[in-house]
Design goal:
two-stranded antiparallel ribbon, 20 helices
Length: 432
């Protein structure tokens, strides 16, 4: 009977994944969020049935759920069109970092259909070289759908790597490898990575690999893995601080050098392009112009409106970045050397998000894995709450509802405090 319920839930989850992905538009907020709530309820139900699964079943169904989205044109994000645009520029012999899409469109209209889908025609490309390589492979095809499928195959490959490697890391920490289920079946993970093609899939895989190698005492390999994570997204640079006090000073310096060299090596093919200029320009804009689903920054912004009478993001954004950097460094200096590496990474990420001006749903996915490895449940709650930021999309644009953001962060903070207090109580009992 239990098996019947389990397989019925898996079947319903598959049907809902198809429905929410292929047949639901982003601006259909009630339908979109209703299906996501149902997906998450099934996910939690399956989580309570974890003991009835074999590890092989969890991996198999995790892969199948991702393959269900193989033919999908992303319905929650237009980023893939920029991916293909950049890829096509390289094939045309045009430096994708050097020109704004709007500039290229004036001189040489590469693809009117593709250009019309871009959500950032007036921003330089911010995607690192390894991403650009995958974009170029996808752009081999004239057909946009084939390009999307090609990029998705790379994302799924990274996801499959995580599905196989994460149980091994769970074993390293003496945890049940079947806890993989909380990653493998998480609706936000499936929809945002394999569905909407966000490259956090690679970040997650290389971070898990880095932790695995670190616990095997192969620190050079761990540094290479972190360097590769940085090669796909720059944000994992912050996690280099997490290795402080886990290594002696000489080892730590060597670790940082290897990670940086790997990341720098990935940029070598673009040494004579405007890659650094484009990324630097867009990163500066990120801190000084972009704002979405922020926490502490929105409070600062309101103070700015009250005192200055205008949005102070141009000055507050960089300041928040400095405070975040200082907080991450200070935490990793003060944190006990006995704190496990995934937990240090988890709180380092959380400090970063606390001060960030922009927190898209897919940004938080690495902390889901780190939470699973650290026995924290609040990342699961966040992976549910953050999806509600999709409320506000219309056919004509987007309007952010700060009430939704407030509820999201209030619930998150309350649950974090609850979990931390429970852990403190358990430690007191353990050593009493």
């Amino acid at each position: 009977m239990k098996s019947t319920g389990k397989y019925m839930a898996l079947l319903l989850m598959g049907i809902l994944l198809i429905s929410i992905s292929y047949f639901t538009f982003r601006f259909e907020s009630i339908l979109l969020l209703g299906q996501f709530v149902a997906l998450f309820a099934l996910y939690l139900f399956l989580g309570f049935q974890k003991k009835d699964f074999s590890l092989k079943e969890i991996i198999t169904f995790g892969i199948l759920f991702r393959l269900l989205l193989l033919l999908l044109t992303p319905n929650l994000s237009e980023d893939v069109y920029r991916f293909l645009w950049d890829g096509k520029l390289w094939w045309e012999g045009i430096d994708a970092y050097a020109f704004l899409p709007s500039e290229v469109a004036k001189e040489k209209f590469l693809s009117p259909e593709l250009f019309s889908q871009l959500n950032s025609p007036n921003y330089y490309s911010i995607y690192p070289p390894l991403n650009q390589l995958i974009f170029a492979i996808g752009a081999v095809f004239e057909n946009t759908t084939l390009g999307i499928i090609t990029i998705r195959l790379f994302i799924i490959l990274a996801e499959v790597g995580t599905l196989f490697l994460l149980p091994e890391v769970l074993r390293q920490y003496g945890k049940n490898p079947k806890s993989l289920l909380f990653y493998a079946f998480n609706p936000l993970v499936i929809l945002e990575l394999s569905g909407n093609l966000h490259f956090e899939a690679f970040v997650i895989f290389f971070l898990v690999w880095g932790v695995y190698e670190f616990e095997k005492r192969r620190t050079n390999n761990s540094a290479i893995a972190v360097g590769l994570a940085v090669s796909f997204k720059l944000v994992p640079l912050i996690l280099l601080a997490s290795y402080f006090r886990k290594l002696n000073l000489k080892q730590y310096i060597k670790f940082i050098l290897i990670a940086y060299l790997v990341a720098v090596f990935s940029f070598l093919p673009f040494l004579f392009s405007d890659a650094l200029k484009g990324i630097a320009t867009s990163t500066s804009l990120y801190f000084q112009s972009f704002e979405f689903n922020a926490s502490l920054y929105y409070l600062i912004r309101e103070i700015g409106f009250a005192v200055k009478g205008y949005n102070i993001i141009a000055t507050a954004g960089p300041l928040m970045g400095i405070l975040a950097f200082s907080g991450m460094v200070l935490f990793n200096i003060l944190a006990s050397s006995k704190m496990k590496l995934p937990e240090r990474m988890l709180w380092t990420y959380m400090i970063y998000f606390l001060f960030a001006t922009t927190v898209h749903p897919w940004y938080v996915l690495p902390i889901l894995v780190l939470g699973i490895l650290s026995d924290y449940k609040f990342p699961i709650l966040w992976s549910f709450m953050i999806f509600f930021t999709y409320w506000g999309y219309a056919q004509t644009g987007y309007q952010e509802y700060l009430g939704i953001v407030a509820v999201e962060y209030i619930l998150l903070v309350v649950f974090i405090v609850f979990e931390v207090m429970q852990r403190i109580k358990n430690n007191i009992r353990l050593y009493a």
